Amino acid sequence: MRILIANDDGIYSPGILALAQVASEFGEVLIVAPDVEQSSMGHAITATRPLMYKRTPIEGFEAYRVNGTPADCVALGLFHLEHKADVVLSGINLGTNLGNSAWHSGTLAAAKQAALFGCRGIAFSTPVTRDEPDFTSIKPFVRQSLELLLPQTDLSLVNINIPVNAKGLCWARQSLRHYDGKVVPGKDPMGREHFWFTVIPVEETEEGTDRWAVDHGYVSLTPLRLDLTNNEELQKAQERSPLDKR
Length: 246
Ligand code: MN
What we know:
Elements: E1 2-6, H1 14-23, E2 28-34, E3 53-55, E4 62-66, H2 70-79, E5 87-94, H3 106-116, E6 120-126, H4 135-149, E7 157-161, E8 168-171, E9 179-187, E10 193-201, H5 210-215, E11 218-223, H6 231-240
Parallel strand pairs: 1-2, 1-5, 2-4, 5-6, 6-7, 8-11
Antiparallel strand pairs: 3-4, 7-11, 9-10
Helix pairs in contact: 1-4, 2-3
Bound molecules: manganese (II) ion.
């Protein structure tokens, strides 16, 4: 099995090395990742300047750093670096990607990019901790997840979140909590105003969701789809306002 590994934290993140170490038990690994952090860049692609890459072997793993986004890295990896990958793994992100984060996560975007190209994609994330995460306790759950998912080839895109001190795996649906936006003002050393954008959840987490699973100490496994169509509303809209196609 050929495995392409990307992330959004950048090629020097300890998370990508931990993922490569576990992945190498399952197949041949190639790392292609952004040269600097690209967290929260979502599925952006670089379209107005050239992309470049440099070979950067990491602890024995063949690796390339790219001056682009996570999605760029997957495209370069799959189409240029002559790697016919069977699966793209992304992460391990330092920070969970639960619920609404799916919309702006660069980690998940790398896996989505794979799925858009007809390859499989699996994203891994773990909560931010004060110190570096304890990868020795996270790695067994990455291994278990891969053992479970890799043979199930119909699962083309899966989002995985591994809590601290996890107690097992759990299938979960994406939580959709509403948030209140919050803009926190500050001042830079020159006295100029600047702002931080943050959000506050306004609803409790529902059982069966990814957030619920992680809050309760379970590794959440969420199969996702690329088709965003709201079929229920499409049908209602068609019935309400039939449009004449001539
Ligand atoms: Mn990140």
